[in-house]
Amino acid sequence: AQPIQTTASDQPRRILNTVFGLPGFRGDQQEIIEHVVAGGDAIVLMPTGGGKSLCYQIPALCRSGVAIVVSPLIALMRNQVDILRQLDVRVATLNSSLSGSERFKAKAALRDGRLDLLYVAPERLMMPDFLEMLDGAEVALLAIDEAHCVSQWGHDFRPEYLQLGELAARFPGVPRIALTATADRQTREDIRRRLKLDTARLFLSSFDRPNIRYAILPKTEPRRQLMSFLKTRQGESGIVYCLSRKSVDETAAGLQASGIRALPYHAGLDSAIRSHHQDAFLKEDGLVLVATIAFGMGIDKPDVRFVAHLDLPGSLEAYYQETGRAGRDGLPAETLLLYGMQDLVLRRSMIDQSQSPIEVKRIERAKLEALLGVCETASCRRQAILAHFGERMAEPCGNCDTCLAPVETWDGTVAAQKAMSAVFRTNQRFGVGHLIDILLGANTEKMRRFGHSRLPTFGVGKEFGKPVWSSVFRQLIVQGAVEIDHDHFGAIKLTALGRDILHGKAAISFRRDRATRTATAAVAKK
Ligand code: ADP
Ligand code: ZN
């Protein structure tokens, strides 16, 4: 990098002011930057829009040599490179979309030490000839963006990322910084272990996006529900996510027919049309982009005012990421998620039919259940979402649908006690499926093998069906009465709160209007 003449300690701030034209640091940025400039490794967990890029871009300019930035998506790289070029930062990228001469130019600049930052795709970085080229260069630091891609637990697992752990041995003494907006404990541990960041300092920002309002409704008439959501938002930019290409096309056409400026975006469209629609969305005001999840990663449009999901996302992480594209400018933004039993059935069969190993399927099912738990919760959505990311919020948020219009609930204490006594009587060593079989008194092979039909809890839950018990367990998880031990095949364990409920010292209630309507019906019968 081009060292700016200044004392070492205020150099990051000077670069922030002079190169990036920004008045001050946000959140943990300064601390992270100082740590990396001093040569430390870091794992940075920050929500989307939190300002992760500066955390490696400023150290890249403070330290001598070139910073290598691994990034999984070409669109994302291009976006960053465009921004940096405008700021006169010496930056290049190496990925499969470049022409031969562009690639040659980038490599020459690297060889001659004329680069501050080089963005590379993970598969390219690990190629022997490229690594050899780097041996001849002075490397200022290694940044691994979207580091959750290293985790199978994450929603964008990329096998190429697994090799990045080798960088530790290849570049001893070069600071490494891994960044992601995915913060659950499992992903965090995978990043540390697989990228060999054993001694890296963890910087965990709050994942709360207080300006985003969460609303989740059972899906009854999706088209009409969407229209009434959009009615008050005319002239604002927003994203509507659908699961399939077909429903993207249909929804976009339906909106256009109602006089709303909407464009479709999915991987089945011609790439020229796709990028035309993306550009229109980025540049114009008041456009609704109807998209599959193919759209969005790395898109930096600050004034997206709403995000609607017409179908259930695959996980809470995905939901959080996708809703997180709203309100990056910090101004109020709204979200709407519609979910129905059909979505759930579809998502489950997508998992069942995938080619993933059995362990991955188990994890994916658990993640889907976690999202459903938030859909079904009778308490604050934000508290439930943040709890999933390991963050405790003392008070309900006041800016989600359940906070704004409290829902009807039923006293689930007895049901919870039955469920948790099944957990307790089997020594907290079994997963939800088997526990429900116990409650329903199912005569399975596993039941016979473990002699569980002799338990006093066997068959005590026949007043409900399987969907209701699944929902009860999800709510026990969301409300923190039990937890899943992912290292022991998804075994359910009681927490202190769970014990209190089991012993009649605390009560628990469940929401009445869940999509699994059978629960309501069953309770009403009593
Ligand atoms: P992330 O990668 O965490 O999603 P970015 O690094 O893309 O976020 O930053 C999101 C937006 O916030 C960008 O427009 C960026 O310019 C802006 N930003 C980042 N840090 C600051 C800061 N300290 N002051 C003002 N704006 C900032
Ligand atoms: Zn709330």
TrEMBL record:
<feature type="domain" description="Helicase ATP-binding">
    <location>
        <begin position="33"/>
        <end position="201"/>
    </location>
</feature>
<dbReference type="GO" id="GO:0003677">
    <property type="term" value="F:DNA binding"/>
</dbReference>
<keyword id="KW-0479">Metal-binding</keyword>
<comment type="similarity">
    <text>Belongs to the helicase family. RecQ subfamily.</text>
</comment>
<protein>
    <recommendedName>
        <fullName>DNA helicase RecQ</fullName>
        <ecNumber>5.6.2.4</ecNumber>
    </recommendedName>
</protein>
<dbReference type="GO" id="GO:0006281">
    <property type="term" value="P:DNA repair"/>
</dbReference>
<dbReference type="GO" id="GO:0030894">
    <property type="term" value="C:replisome"/>
</dbReference>
<keyword id="KW-0547">Nucleotide-binding</keyword>
<dbReference type="GO" id="GO:0009378">
    <property type="term" value="F:four-way junction helicase activity"/>
</dbReference>
<dbReference type="GO" id="GO:0043138">
    <property type="term" value="F:3'-5' DNA helicase activity"/>
</dbReference>
<keyword id="KW-0347">Helicase</keyword>
<keyword id="KW-0378">Hydrolase</keyword>
<keyword id="KW-0238">DNA-binding</keyword>
<dbReference type="GO" id="GO:0006310">
    <property type="term" value="P:DNA recombination"/>
</dbReference>
<dbReference type="GO" id="GO:0005524">
    <property type="term" value="F:ATP binding"/>
</dbReference>
<dbReference type="GO" id="GO:0043590">
    <property type="term" value="C:bacterial nucleoid"/>
</dbReference>
<dbReference type="GO" id="GO:0009432">
    <property type="term" value="P:SOS response"/>
</dbReference>
<feature type="domain" description="Helicase C-terminal">
    <location>
        <begin position="222"/>
        <end position="369"/>
    </location>
</feature>
<dbReference type="GO" id="GO:0046872">
    <property type="term" value="F:metal ion binding"/>
</dbReference>
<keyword id="KW-0227">DNA damage</keyword>
<dbReference type="GO" id="GO:0006260">
    <property type="term" value="P:DNA replication"/>
</dbReference>
<dbReference type="GO" id="GO:0005737">
    <property type="term" value="C:cytoplasm"/>
</dbReference>
<keyword id="KW-0233">DNA recombination</keyword>
<keyword id="KW-0862">Zinc</keyword>
<keyword id="KW-0234">DNA repair</keyword>
<keyword id="KW-0413">Isomerase</keyword>
<keyword id="KW-0067">ATP-binding</keyword>
<dbReference type="GO" id="GO:0016787">
    <property type="term" value="F:hydrolase activity"/>
</dbReference>
